Hints:
Blueprint: E1 13-14, E2 20-21, H1 24-35, H2 49-57, H3 64-72, H4 74-82, H5 97-105, H6 115-122, H7 135-141, H8 149-166, H9 168-180, H10 187-201
Amino acid sequence: MAQATVPALVVTVALRDGVVVGDPLAQALAFLEAYGAPREDALPSSFGEADLRAANRGGARISAVEIATILERQPEIEAALRVIAPAASLTRHSVPWAELMRLFDAFGDIRGVGFSKMTKALHPKRPALVPMLDSFVQQYLGAPSAESFGERATELVRRYKQDLDRNRPALRELRQELASHGYRLTEVRILDLLIWSALAAS
């Protein structure tokens, strides 16, 4: 059966280095149809093995040894999550940067666990705040210059917010349109998949 044609929204998303996504709705729908929608999480202040297994189903590739090591940090991770409101968002003027850095630092110095695995596990907990910093997105944002693990991760998220702020009206419109297609995503997740799609196609 032929797929129905998706009408283009009269919006564009401007990425870095002059890259412009001219039909972001079609790009987003193609990605979601290929890879599925993100899961929703009803337990925003807990963090355990189920979250890491779910991240693996989304492609995180966290090994059994890494899972065991992360779970040793479970009290620290959950304590950091509890001080960040579930509705915290990069789209707002006030972002809990210090608290976010504390959360990221809870994953510091775990062998084999970098920004990609960490943020794929944390994104469902704070979907409007934590982008998925996979290798494509990290390449896009550039290497951070800070020293500690948490500082470097936070530096990347700050750069991500710059792109989010620059495209906020378009991303808001895309969010509404995707909801009408049955996909409820945050602006953070929409930008992430558009960056991924643009870089994967280049």
